[in-house]
Amino acid sequence: MTATVEIKELSKWFGNKVAVSELSVNFSPGITGLLGPNGAGKTTMMRVVAGLQVPSQGSVSILGKDPRTDPEIYRKVALVPEDDAVYGHLTASEFVTLAARLSGVDDIERRVVDAIQLVEMSDSSDRKLDGFSKGMRQRIKVAAALVSGPEILLLDEPLNGADPVQRARLIALFRRLGDEGRTVLVSSHVLAEVERMTDQVVAMVDGRLAAMGHISEIRSAMSDKPRRVYIETDHTRRLGSALLQLDGVVGIELDDDRLTLQVTDAQGFARGIPKILADGNYAVTRIEPTDESLESVFRYLVEGE
Amino acid sequence: MTHLVAHLYRRTMRKGRLIGLTALSAVPAVLFPLLVASGLESAELSGTYAGVVTGAGYTFAIAALVISGGVLREERDSGTLPYIYMRPYSRFKLALASVTAGAAAASTLGIAAWALTVLTGLLVGAGPSVTGSGITLFVPAAIGYAAVFVPLGYLFSRSLLIGLGYVLVGETILAFVIPGLAQLSIWRISMSIYASVADFGPDSVAGLGPIAPGAGGGITKLAAVLVLGVALLTWALRKRDAL
């Protein structure tokens, strides 16, 4: 499929801090999830693609054009920024109308109504944005982005603040936009969220490309990662030796009242531990996985640590 | 482009801020009747008015700094800049629209400041023949300051501080010490336009420093400032990070 967004050896730094490092990736029509922990460089990448920031090195082209030098491309590109920023003094309808006017679209009135309907906010279209919840602001930002009918849609953490029902509706909307042949790039630090939208992902860590492709490949790489689990108990030695019998427990550290386990088969461990605790009548005050964050998972993908 | 200018203008002219800045710009309107009431001959009215608006009018320069410097700075600081930046306008048009909105906002304040001097002048018997020409000071100054402060607001996060330095130190002190700097003073350029139509007192003429009174020269200088301001902002919008 033809790439609509091409990023070649893109680097972006601010003083000594490197936000994006030698990133080369193309995006085609359909939804692509941009995954990575906070600080991975997703927002910077989005901003550079949107032409809001100048690449320190490398290049970005959208439909063959450089967004920095060809503002006409903004007829075909829209961004939903991560910031919770809207014009609070405007009503929802005025905000979307402003976006339509500034984009120079025809038949403004109908398109504004349609865009607001798409995000299911018709009932609130006359309310001031100052009174909106974060989730409602996200949806109206999406409406403002859609009103010009963009071919390329950049969505930076668009589900932040949305409640579960709103999330489900926005996800359905994004999927529909992808199915219509638009290029939809959605950033998120929540794997499960992206998984509901698309199976094509680009993962970033520390400004670099960590993984790219089908989501099952990322899942598979994640399942190989040993997890660390803390257990607080009064019987560290006895419980430790009992837990070593479980398949998938590959390491153990003893402390005064705490065990730290290295587990390769998290599901097998979760199934086996209740029986061991019950059989030995061990008093356990806490069991906690310590490195389940997406950041640690991605770091593992990049560095194998 | 008119939609963009209208949006930037409306955003800048928030009610609370407008009241505060109008009050700041109204210092000459308060001082003038007080001085007249203290016992001036009517023959001195014009010279006194000119002295008051040119001397105390610096408060308007500060108000113009706040209002026009905020046109793009506030969009950037509040995170709404993408909504105007990512539109199919050339960067030149975006710069021109921003400076135009800044000039319109500052001019609104300037006209309010001048209108207040007209009203308070009427209270002490100074009619439009005395105060009417004041508009030729405030509006050119508003346009000139917008051409300087709109780009300044976009380029520097501490633009208010830098702008205050320009107004309070550069235009008032340094321009007296270094005569060449007076040629770069928006206030003095505007005073030169005002001086060509108003009955200036000797104190006000002295305030011009090395600048000769004259509408033609003043307007030419302001036009040059405007062109430079728009060019600088166009460059910044093209070459610098917007966020």
Describe the structure.
The complex is a heterodimer of chains A (305) and B (243). Chain A contains ten helices and 13 strands. Chain A is an alpha/beta fold and 305 residues long. Chain A has two domains: 218 residues, 3-Layer(aba) Sandwich (Rossmann fold); 79 residues, Alpha-Beta Plaits (2-Layer Sandwich), CATH 3.30.70.100. The longest helix of chain A is centred in the middle third of the chain and has 16 residues. The radius of gyration of chain A is 23 Å and the shape is elongated. Chain B is mainly alpha-helical. In chain B, α1 crosses α7. Classes of the chains: A alpha/beta (305), B mainly alpha (243). At the A-B interface, β5 and α2 of A face α1 and α6 of B.
Assembly classification:
heterodimer
What's the N-to-C terminus distance of chain B?
22 Å
Strand content of chain A: 25-35%
Number of domains of chain A: 2
What sequence of helices (H) and strands (E) makes up the elements of chain A? EEEHEEHHHEHEHEEHEHEEHEH
Number of strands of chain B: 0
